[in-house]
Write a structure and sequence with these properties.
Elements (H helix, E strand, L loop, with lengths): L1 E5 L9 H13 L6 E5 L14 H15 L3 E5 L9 H7 L1 E3 L4 E5 L2 E6 L9 H10 L2 H8 L3 H19 L11 H10 L4 E4 L6 E7 L2 E7 L6 E8 L4 E7 L8
Parallel strand pairs: 1-2, 2-3, 3-4, 6-7, 7-9
Antiparallel strand pairs: 1-10, 5-6, 8-9, 10-11
Length: about 250
C-alpha cells in the first residue's frame, strides 16, 4: 500500500500548466495510492465554498473521481485557502484535517502541518495569521458578496508579495526551535509540511533520538510529492511541469 502527500499547488485558472500537471497526477499517481494528503495552499486563493466557478468544479471532479474509486482523501487548509470548509470537503469526498494533526503512517506516528505556524520569526505574518484564523474575521469576510471577496483576496495577495519581497530569506523559513518543540509535544519523530517552497529532507536529533522533517515542494516549475510505503520507505519525488503550448 502507498500513501501520497502533496502541498502548495497554488491552483489557479491563470496557470493551466499546473492544472494540467495536477490532472495527470490524479490520473497516473493517485490511483495507486490508498490515501492522498493535501497539506494546504492547494488553491492560490479560496474565497469560500460558495464560489462554484467552472475552474473550481473541474478540480472538485478530479478529487471526487479519486474518492469515488475508493481512495481516502485528507485536506488541510493553508495560508492561501484558509476559507476552505466542510461543504467543499463533502463535495470532494474529503476529510478536513486540523492543523497540526498526528497520523499513524504505517505504524509511525507522524505530525502533519501546513508549515506556516512554524515560521515564528515572521512576526508580521504571524499577526495576520492569528487574525485570519479567527472565526469572527472569517465570518465577516464570508458575509461579503463573492466579487467583493475576490477583490479583497487580490489586495491581500498583492500586499503579501510586496511584504515578502522585503524580508530576509531566513525570516520566512521555519524556526528550528518551533519544529523541535512541536514534535516533542506530541512525541513524534517525523514531521511532514509544506509552505516554505523549500523541498528537502532534514535529519534531526530530538531527545537523543533520530528524527526527520520532510518539506514538500511547491508546484511552480515542478510537481513534488512524497510517497510513503508500508515497509517504511519514504521517497520525495519531483517531475517537471510541462508548458502548455499556445493556441495558434
Amino acid at each position: 500500500m502507498t500513501t501520497l502527500f502533496i502541498s502548495d499547488l497554488h491552483l489557479d485558472a491563470s496557470r493551466p500548466d499546473v492544472t494540467s500537471a495536477f490532472v495527470r497526477f490524479m490520473e497516473i499517481q493517485a490511483p495507486g495510492a490508498e490515501s492522498l494528503y493535501i497539506l494546504g495552499d492547494f488553491f492560490e486563493v479560496w474565497i469560500g465554498d460558495d464560489d462554484r466557478s467552472e475552474f473550481n468544479q473541474l478540480i472538485v471532479r478530479q478529487l471526487r473521481q479519486y474518492t469515488d474509486s475508493g481512495g481516502n482523501l485528507f485536506m488541510m487548509v493553508g495560508n492561501r485557502d484558509f476559507l476552505m470548509g466542510e461543504d467543499f470537503a463533502a463535495e470532494c469526498g474529503a476529510q478536513l484535517l486540523a492543523d497540526p494533526t498526528v497520523i499513524d503512517l504505517y505504524g509511525r506516528p507522524t505530525l502533519l502541518t501546513h508549515g506556516d505556524s512554524l515560521c515564528t520569526k515572521d512576526t508580521e505574518y504571524m499577526a495576520f495569521r492569528a487574525q485570519a484564523r479567527s472565526p469572527e474575521w472569517q465570518q465577516n469576510l464570508l458575509a461579503q458578496p463573492i466579487e467583493a471577496r475576490r477583490e479583497i483576496a487580490r489586495q491581500l495577495r498583492a500586499q503579501s508579495k510586496s511584504m515578502n519581497s522585503m524580508k530576509a530569506e531566513d525570516i520566512m523559513d521555519v524556526t528550528q526551535e518551533e519544529v523541535v518543540g512541536n514534535m516533542e509535544r506530541v512525541s513524534v519523530r517525523l514531521m511532514i509540511h509544506g509552505h516554505t517552497h523549500r523541498p528537502d529532507r532534514h535529519p534531526l536529533q530530538i531527545a537523543g533520538e533520530s528524527a526527520e522533517r520532510i518539506v514538500l515542494g511547491d508546484w511552480h516549475d515542478h510537481l513534488w510529492w512524497l510517497q510513503a510505503e508500508t515497509d517504511g520507505n519514504l521517497q520525495l519525488n519531483q517531475a517537471p511541469i510541462a508548458p502548455i503550448a499556445p493556441v495558434t
